[in-house]
Amino acid sequence: MPEQRLLLLGFGNVGQWLARLLLRHGAALAREHGIAFRITGIATGRHGVVCNPAGIDAGAALQLAAAGAQLGALPGVQSLADPAALLAAGAGDVLFENSPQNAHSGQPALDYIRTALQNGMHVITANKGPLVHGYAALKALAAAHKRRFLFESTVMDGTPIFSMARECLPLSRVTALRGVLNSTTNVILSQMEQGATFAAGVQYAQQLGVAEADPSADVDGWDAAVKVAAIATVLMDQPITPAQMTVQGIRAVTPQQAQAARAAGTPLKLLCTAAMVDGRVQAAVQPTPISFADPLAHLTGTSSGVTLTFDTMKEIYVAGMNHGPEQTAFGLLADFVNALR
Ligand SMILES: NC(=O)c1ccc[n+]([C@@H]2O[C@H](COP(=O)([O-])OP(=O)(O)OC[C@H]3O[C@@H](n4cnc5c(N)ncnc54)[C@H](OP(=O)(O)O)[C@@H]3O)[C@@H](O)[C@H]2O)c1
To answer: Could you give the domains of the chain?
Structure first.
């Protein structure tokens, strides 16, 4: 197999973890899967876009990123105007798209992915925006160009749900899901069960690095809703957007309610549901008391889990315990191996 030329679009938490994993597993990729690679381009928002067809030193790029420096300081690289110029340079076989999510339109990542597929690249992403806003078209484009569009890390931080369904359960269709899919609200609710106020819970989640400076998308339920949309679109074959769901966040939950729910053996979780009703998908995200008889009630911290109901296999429960950006990046690496199979 020829050496794969990799473009890393987005070099933040996830992109940098991917670079570390490529360094760590490079020898095993060659030995166990016959995959050789070099990183030929890295694109960021404010820290430069660089290209070197001969290969970029990933260790040096990580050091510069840790120092907050411009990637243009890397030896031998050419600086380019923007990510579009990198995609046009023809220096890549695989695009890893890990720029920030735009929940409203999927842009500009949607255009980056479209261009890469049109240019004959495989595309692997952790970005939910393009998946929710462009799945059917991107899947068709990938098929037309005999390339793969893979996205295991978009939901549940790399825990395999899309590849499990695709590889292990042929002829199966998901008919319903119940999940706890947002870490920030899980951490905040756990804190409130111990008496913390909502604001203190948010602050704690921010200190852990789980919540963003503006936690609205998480606490108001929209991050979870985008994840439900991703699962429904791909596994239920039912394209749906968050705007078409019932979405209620956790702002109105009081510490007293959280404590009482746990004491009653039914802790509050931001529950995600979707099911087929009269031939259409109905989906919701709402704070809900869950009995300890349900495995979802036991998820704490940054763990996430989902029970998928299949028309063939009844219910399958999948959970990822205390995952973070390293596991998200591992999902990208697994997609890379699967794309080249
Ligand atoms: N963190 C996780 O565990 C996790 C889990 C699942 C999915 N995801 C998804 O993975 C993606 C990356 O997350 P992250 O945590 O790595 O984010 P992050 O740390 O904020 O990094 C984002 C990267 O994208 C770059 N960027 C910003 N705007 C850009 C643009 N218009 N074009 C190209 N690059 C741009 C940033 O560059 P500058 O720093 O120079 O601005 C930075 O390198 C997101 O879509 C996120 O939703 C993340």
So the answer is: 4-159+325-340 (3.40.50.720), 174-320 (3.30.360.10)
pLDDT in tens, 84-136: 999 999 999 999 999 999 988 999 999 999 999 999 999 999 999 999 999 99
Q: How far apart are CA 74 and CA 197, in angstroms?
A: 46
Ligand 1 binding pocket mutation candidate from 20, 98, 127, 154 (most atoms within 8 A of CB)? 98
- What global pTM score does this model have? 0.97
- pLDDT at position 219 is 98
Terminal Cα distance for the chain, rounded: 11
Q: What is the DSSP string of 222-281?
A: HHHHHHHHHHHHHHS-----GGGSEE--STT--HHHHHHHHHTT--EEEEEEEEEETTEE
- How far away, in angstroms, is 48 Cα from ligand 1 center? 14
Cα 145 to ligand 1 centroid, rounded to whole Å: 27
CA 62 – ligand 1 centroid, Å: 15
